[in-house]
């Protein structure tokens, strides 16, 4: 999965042996003469891509891999060879080595707003209105009758559909936005999410090579942030409504017709089905799957997968009936203890 060239500059091809040497890794399997062109997640990498494997856990449900080069720890060489990986490089910190190698292949395109506020390369359809102080980068496409508010920033390569409204001081980068989308003031779409890996050099940020995609008729509230994916896309489905000051992390998928109330948070690589409702300050940890039509109470902390149609509440969250029974039991216990202390 090569990074979208609208958002990223590709320095391909790069010779495999040179790339491995540049990051001080050791080639354990494969030809040093192979040419590489892009970056991808382990499961979707092609023979032209580099990737990494954190641990053997990620291989449990995989029957075949086609990656051109995979960075890993020494104990993973044989399992990766058996799955068909073309070349394998070993090192102490595969994520750090991958990050360094990836920067030699792919780099984000930079905005050149110091040259002109509205790029002459941007394509603006009929009826587009642009407020004072707004900046529009190279290669941006804006659909008809879309309004871009004062001080908004639309980064290089972004696509915005027809009849959209981009609020004042919103910042949009690495994003593909559908029709009739309402982005409220101060929202930020497409920045890199929080990904940290420890290495010999200390803490390193995990580089992001993906984008954000917003489907038709979505609302994104003020001061809400939606992070771009590490690989692939962070996706918001049709007609979903997101309140103010909500955090949607990298590689999250949110289905259609969902509602996320203020201060809700969805951690990385979590998948939400259709018609989900999250109460204010509700939080879902990373790599969780939530079924269709689920209801999550205000302030809940979801740490487990939830099946379709269920209602959960509490901290940590559990099924609503269980939560209510526990609350009643606690109230009875507290009342009984109080009565005992008062001699009743």
Query: How do the strands line up in the largest sheet?
Result: 11-14-17-20-25-28-31-34-37-39-40
CATH superfamily of the largest domain: Hexapeptide repeat proteins
CATH architecture of the largest domain: 3 Solenoid
The figure for the number of domains is 2
- Considering DSSP H and I runs of 4 or more, what fraction of the residues is helical? 10-25%
Going by helix content, strand content and strand pairing, the class is alpha/beta
Content of β-strand: 25-35%
Biggest sheet architecture: 11 strands, mixed
CA-based shape: flat
Alpha plus pi helix count: 4
* CATH topology title of the largest domain: UDP N-Acetylglucosamine Acyltransferase, domain 1
State the end-to-end distance.
71 Å
Number of strands: 40
What is the C-alpha radius of gyration, as a whole number of Å?
Answer: 24 Å
Rounded mean pLDDT is 93
| Oligomeric state of the chains present here | single chain
CATH class category of the largest domain = Mainly Beta
Sequence stretches where pLDDT stays below 50 over 5 or more residues: none
How is this structure best described in words?
This protein is an alpha/beta fold and 344 residues long. The protein has two domains: 8-108, Udp-n-acetylmuramoylalanyl-d-glutamate--2,6- Diaminopimelate Ligase, Chain: A, domain 1 (3-Layer(aba) Sandwich); 123-320, Hexapeptide repeat proteins (UDP N-Acetylglucosamine Acyltransferase, domain 1, 3 Solenoid), CATH 2.160.10. It has four helices and 40 strands. The strands form seven sheets. An eleven-stranded mixed β-sheet has the order 11-14-17-20-25-28-31-34-37-39-40. Strand 39 and strand 40 (318-319) form a beta hairpin. The radius of gyration is 24 Å and the shape is flat. It starts with 7 loop residues before the first strand and ends with a helix.
């Amino acid at each position: 999965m090569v990074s979208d060239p609208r958002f990223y500059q590709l320095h391909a091809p790069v010779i495999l042996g040179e790339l491995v040497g540049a990051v001080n890794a050791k080639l354990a399997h494969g030809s040093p003469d192979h040419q590489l062109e892009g970056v991808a997640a382990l499961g979707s990498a092609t023979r032209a891509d580099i990737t990494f494997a954190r641990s053997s856990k990620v291989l449990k449900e995989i029957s075949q891999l086609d990656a051109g080069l995979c960075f890993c720890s020494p104990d993973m060489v044989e399992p990766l060879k058996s799955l068909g990986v073309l070349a394998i490089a070993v090192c102490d910190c595969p994520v750090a080595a991958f990050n360094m190698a990836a920067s030699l292949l792919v780099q984000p395109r930079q905005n050149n707003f110091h040259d002109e506020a509205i790029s002459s390369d941007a394509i603006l359809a009929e009826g587009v209105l642009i407020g004072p102080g707004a900046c529009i980068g190279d290669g941006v496409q804006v659909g008809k009758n879309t309004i871009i508010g004062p001080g908004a920033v639309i980064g290089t390569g972004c696509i915005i559909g027809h009849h959209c409204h981009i609020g004042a001081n919103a910042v949009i980068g690495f994003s593909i936005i559908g029709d009739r989308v309402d982005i409220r003031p101060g929202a930020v779409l497409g920045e890199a999410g929080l990904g940290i890996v420890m290495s010999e050099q200390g803490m390193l940020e995990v580089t992001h090579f993906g984008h954000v995609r917003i489907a038709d008729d979505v609302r994104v509230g003020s001061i809400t942030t939606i992070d771009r994916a590490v690989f692939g896309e962070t996706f918001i489905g049709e007609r979903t409504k997101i309140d103010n000051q909500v955090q949607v992390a990298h590689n999250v998928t949110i289905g259609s017709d969902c509602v996320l109330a203020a201060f809700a948070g969805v951690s990385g690589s979590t998948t939400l089905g259709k018609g989900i409702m999250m109460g204010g300050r509700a939080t879902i940890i990373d790599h969780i799957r939530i079924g269709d039509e689920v209801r999550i109470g205000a302030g809940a902390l979801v740490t487990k997968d939830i099946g379709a149609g269920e209602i959960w509440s509490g901290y940590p969250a559990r099924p609503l009936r269980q939560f209510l029974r526990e609350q009643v039991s606690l109230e009875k216990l507290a009342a009984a203890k109080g009565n005992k202390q008062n001699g009743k």
